[in-house]
Amino acid sequence: MVNKLWCVGVGPGDPKLITLYGKQVIENSDVIFCPVKSVHSESFALETVRKIIPLEGKEIVKLIFPMTTKEDKARPYWFSAYEKIKEKVISGKKCVFIVEGDPLIFSTFNSVLEIINQKKEFDVEIVPGISSFQVMASKVKLPVVDGDEVLVIMPASTKEKSGCRTAQLRDDFEKILEISSAVFILKSGRVINQLTEVLSERENIKVFFGELCGTENEFISELNDELKSRENHYFSIVMIKREEKKVDSGSDEKKEKDVQVSQSIFHRND
Ligand SMILES: C[S@@+](CC[C@H](N)C(=O)[O-])C[C@H]1O[C@@H](n2cnc3c(N)ncnc32)[C@H](O)[C@@H]1O
């Protein structure tokens, strides 16, 4: 009897970015659970997996996680998902829950994992996936953090008391920006206008917008006014990187010598 659930992060949408171990776990599974918004929606994670793993003979179970931040509305769905998973796991089937990106970063799996950890009715193994923020950084080819630098990964807005996420940039944004060397803003599509305004005045930062990173519909651009009139996809991320002058060309004495050397080269060639 296996009595274990695997959760595999399948990365941002490019099947080449599924880890070898994640692929192996999915190939060996009998049942694949995938999160969807509603009965009629398709699973982004399953579409990614389908591109490289034949799914014939596997049972596919859609688990509904409605797009609500109201916890009292969402909670029954978490428990219903948990019960469906438990039934299959306890029956001895090899079960895998697939999620887009990494399973522990703002993921539907987190709510189920809390129930699994509380109830301790079966074991769980988590296979990390490449997260959207990692793909974004790799596309703009900038170091994320180094040395004493601070990295922040956050959603663009906060939840109101009612549990609803606002369409407004979070109030603590400026404070967060002050202490961070790199900030990744997830769920950023709806706050692009505000972000553009707040950040346009700032110096010594680079800001990039990424949509559907790591898919064939990837769109990456520096943050600019044109993005305001665009219909931005839910899979949108913003990367802010503070520009530090880290690559020092040497001491003043050395710089002076360098100038003398280059001047003498110049004179020789003159
Ligand atoms: C529910 S969270 C899932 C995050 C995911 N677990 C991860 O590790 O990236 C959804 C948010 O992640 C970001 N996201 C996920 N995939 C993305 C992609 N391929 N390109 C850009 N942003 C993405 C977007 O900000 C989106 O609103």
Write a structural description:
The model is unreliable at 258-270 (pLDDT under 50). The chain has 270 residues and is an alpha/beta fold. The chain folds into 2 domains: 4-130, 3-Layer(aba) Sandwich (Cobalt-precorrin-4 Transmethylase, domain 1), CATH 3.40.1010; 133-242, 2-Layer Sandwich (Methyltransferase, Cobalt-precorrin-4 Transmethylase, Domain 2). Helices cover 33% and strands 21% of the residues. The chain has helices at 20-27, 44-50, 71-90, 108-119, 132-140, 173-179, 192-200, 252-269; strands at residues 4-9, 31-36, 59-64, 95-99, 123-127, 151-155, 182-186, 205-211, 219-222, 236-242. The longest helix is centred in the first third of the chain and has 20 residues, at 71-90. The protein contains 8 helices and 10 strands. The strands form 2 sheets. Strands 3-2-4-1-5 form a 5-stranded parallel sheet, sandwiched between helices. A 5-stranded mixed sheet has the order 6-7-10-8-9, covered by helices on one side. Helix 3 (71-90) packs across helix 4. The protein starts with a strand and ends with a helix. Bound molecules: S-adenosylmethionine. S-adenosylmethionine is lined by residues 12-13, 100-102, 105-107, 131-132, 186-188, 210-215, 234-237.
